[in-house]
Amino acid sequence: CGLMLSVSLTSPLSLLLDLLPPGVCNLLNPAAIYANNEISLGDVEIYGFDYDYTLAQYSNLLHSMIFNTARDILIEQFKYPEGLGKYDYIPGFAIRGLHYDVQKSLLMKIDAFHYVQLGTAYRGLKPVPDEEVIELYGGTQHIPLYQMSDFYGKGPSLKQFMDIFSLPEMTLLSSVIDYFITHGIEFDQVHLYKDISDAIRDVHVKGVMYKWIEKDMEQYILHGDEIYAVLNRLVNHKKKLFLITNSPFSFVDKGMKHMVGKNWRDLFDMVIVQADKPNFFTDRRKPFRKLDDKGSLQWDKINQLEKGKIYKEGNLFDFLRLTGWRGSKVLYFGDHLYSDLADLMLRHGWRTGAIVPELETEIRIINTEQYMHSLTWQQALTGLLERMQMYQDAESKQVLLEWMKERQEIRSLTKNLFNPQFGSIFRTFHNPTYFSRRLVRFSDIYMASISCLLNYDVNFTFYPRRTPLQHEAPLWMDQLCTGCMKTPFLEEMVHIR
């Protein structure tokens, strides 16, 4: 065994080439649809859609505009220091799904088991040492369930940022804290968080963002032609379509005319704007109101939802009563796991599709040789550590320690390929993230954009991969190592997850 440890430690990194079978890179397709649950599109009769970041995908330029405007609101209206004006948006600083501890001013990534991923906790724009994070949470990395979040990602002191519009909010939060810490200014954490949330909200509520997009749709809206192709194809196959969005009609109308054409409403059986999701799915009190073609409210009582008409507000219970659209024949797509999908799946039995634009970038990274090599070597080391840890002589202990150090270095390297601060939105080293767990829980299928539907027949059945439970794992060879008969550690690698 000592010989085996010594040989494996001193083996050149080129051994990775032996661990990777030919053609292993580019295994994943960024335009594929991935299934958490078995679902047949042939059973789906009705397709529903959110608008922002679902039908309409926006360019990253929008994040800078939101950041700058909210920053200026803080300075001009909330009387924050003018020095904040020197801060610009940092593309790629934050990722979706992070948690923010309001009382501790800590932005961090938490895994599916409620553990903070060390190395991903930031106060302002600087990382917080691991030892300090552990001390802040009473000697552990674990965040208790009662502190974490309610059904919609809001806990007593922790808030989870789940939508794509939250990227500029997290960056602004970190920038303001950085300014105060750098200049030695005391601040109230709760007030600061609320002020920034209010400033970001004003950008949306007061319609500033809508004006930017309407003014230059070519620059801000992506994949427009593909959206028309998806909707037209579904209608041609006799599917019913509806739209439920929190955005106002004039904004949606201009965007859909840009992407789909002036007669876009002919494709939809129902259009509901300013729906106030997630309250739309849970609150029975708000009735539907009809809008005329100019977007003005009508006074008449709604006893039926008519094709070609535009409705405002309302609630899902009246929607179900008036349409009779229930259960698994309905498939609804949205980008926000809580506001769009959670209630529909858990309370109403609809099928759900999550739009995760980050998936495209992450899969392209996963398909690189650098990632494949790093992951394979990391898993080889993990398997060897698991198998060889019983050897406790001095020489073996030294080798095991060096393996542990090398494994940690590779894990950090792999994390940095996705995002230097927080890594992948889907993984915290080996565990799924809290975001990933919610994605699996609240969506039947997920994909980078609605246009991915064009790659599948309208009757296609999605079968989720049977991934091994831990007690089943010895029956499974790791995909990366299948057929690698050259590796000297094949027996050990049977147990690598």
Would you kindly provide a written description of the structure presented here, covering whatever features stand out?
The protein has helices at residues 2-10, 15-19, 61-76, 130-136, 145-148, 166-182, 189-205, 208-215, 217-220, 224-236, 249-259, 279-282, 316-323, 337-346, 358-366, 369-388, 394-418, 434-442, 490-493, and strands at residues 34-35, 39-40, 46-49, 57-58, 99-101, 106-110, 116-123, 126-127, 158-160, 221-222, 240-244, 270-273, 288-291, 310-313, 330-334, 351-355, 427-428, 431-432, 445-447, 461-462. It is an alpha/beta fold and 497 residues long. The chain has 2 domains: 2-30 and 364-431 and 474-493, no CATH class; 39-98 and 161-357 and 448-464, HAD superfamily/HAD-like (Rossmann fold, 3-Layer(aba) Sandwich). The relative contact order is 0.17.
Strand order, largest beta sheet: 1-19-16-15-3-11-12-14-13
Task: Classify the beta-strand content into a percent band.
Answer: 5-15%
Counting copies of identical and different chains, the oligomeric state is single chain
Per DSSP, the total helix count is: 19
Q: Nearest-angstrom radius of gyration?
A: 25 Å
For CATH, the homologous superfamily of the largest domain is named as HAD superfamily/HAD-like
Instruction: Tell me what the CATH architecture of the largest domain is.
Output: 3-Layer(aba) Sandwich
Largest sheet: 9 strands, mixed
Tell me the name of the CATH class of the largest domain.
Alpha Beta
What portion of residues is helical?
40-55%
* CATH fold field value of the largest domain: Rossmann fold
Low-confidence regions: 1-13, 476-497
Report how far the terminal alpha carbons are from each other. Answer: 22 Å
Structural class: alpha/beta
Average pLDDT over all residues: 88
The count of strands amounts to 20
- Dominant shape: globular
Number of domains: 2
